[in-house]
Amino acid sequence: MQTPRNEEAALDAKSRFGLLCESLPVGLLVIDSDGIIQLTNRKTAKILGIKREDWVGCSLLDLFEKQGSKSFDTFFEEVKNRGGSIELESKGGTALDDPSGNTQSIPIELSLSDFPIAANNKLLLATVMDITERREFQRLKQELIAMVSHDMATPLASVQLALEFIASKELSELTEGDLNLAKKAEKSVAHLVKLVDDLLTVERLESGKIDLVPEWFLAGSLLEESAELLQDFAVSKQVTIECEPTELRVYADQSRLKQVVMNFLSNAIKFSPPDSVVSLSASSTDIGVRFSVVDRGRGVPSSEQQLIFQRFHQVEKDDAKKKGGRGLGLAICKALVEGHGGQIGVISETGKGSTFWFTIPNKEEPGK
């Protein structure tokens, strides 16, 4: 028989448990043996985009896609057979912090375990985790493996073929065609070296392991040198490069900024139509010197303008095959600019070209 003191202690323990549940960073639901929701915490409501009062008394399975037709016993056995957790897609709820009222389905990891808090009722504890970031990481990992496999397989096959062919001959028997084959193999090796170097550069930049060596230099010289280095490529694409003259001086790592400008310029040429112009400029702003590369190409959709600076991201899936590149260049540019304390971005409208820009903060030059 419970005494008033015991009842008070039990009530106090329940209150503390409730406060603990509300403060946890994972979603929690208490359900009965039939899968009916008895209690949820605030995090569950936020993850699933639901109002708690609307779902208490409803079936847990109704929260998820393609589960409503199952009995809860069948579902529970399936979860236990998977080690106590399962990945599901939530039904499109309205995110509580989304003023637009948009609905969206998100990937969820749901875990179920016995919850023997009540002596007379069998309860289960369900934990809910939003695994959107995990799915994105898995997607990027798969894309990386596919990209590296593809980019390495073709040039390695070329190198292997060339070496086998040349090794089958005496040195005096080598023809001009054999030498051309060797040159193609050399280009394939250079491609592989560039791929590995890009991957290592991204990793070093993101871990802060690349030291920048700043110096004072003319922004105009940087633009002109970049244009000169890519002039032959521009001619091959029937694109004209124009540099606006400027006497602005910048304090930064010149070789690294040249890498950024050349990436912008190479992309601009690559995606520009024949007989068009790509413009390079540097201008003074309130926060620093702004470098811009303007093209008249296909443009970048607004939905892609933040994503394109992420690793391995391509605006269109066929870009890697049709235009070349591995989706690493802009990610490297972003890391280099931010390493200088600067900002990077793109202004674009589909079908009307793009302006890729970055800003390097002002510094006071000694003696001026």
Furnish the topology, listing elements before pairings.
Layout: H1 4-23, E1 27-32, E2 37-40, H2 42-48, H3 52-55, H4 72-81, E3 85-89, E4 93-94, E5 103-104, E6 107-114, E7 123-130, H5 132-167, H6 176-206, E8 215-218, H7 219-229, H8 231-236, E9 239-243, E10 249-252, H9 254-270, E11 276-284, E12 288-295, H10 319-322, H11 329-339, E13 343-348, E14 354-361
Parallel strand pairs: 9-11
Antiparallel strand pairs: 1-2, 1-7, 3-6, 4-5, 6-7, 8-10, 11-12, 12-14, 13-14
Helix pairs in contact: 5-6, 6-11, 7-9, 9-11
What's this model, at a glance?
The chain is of the alpha+beta class and 368 residues long. The protein is built from 11 helices and 14 strands.
Rounded to an integer in angstroms, the radius of gyration calculated over CA atoms is 30 Å
What's the order of the H and E elements?
Answer: HEEHHHEEEEEHHEHHEEHEEHHEE
Query: The biggest beta sheet, please?
Result: 5 strands, antiparallel
Number of strands: 14
CATH topology of the largest domain: Heat Shock Protein 90
The overall pLDDT average reads 79
Spatial order of the strands forming the largest sheet: 2-1-7-6-3
Total count of domains: 2
Using the alpha-carbon principal axes, give the shape: extended
Q: SS-based structural class?
A: alpha+beta
Distance between the termini: 88 Å
Quaternary structure annotation: single chain
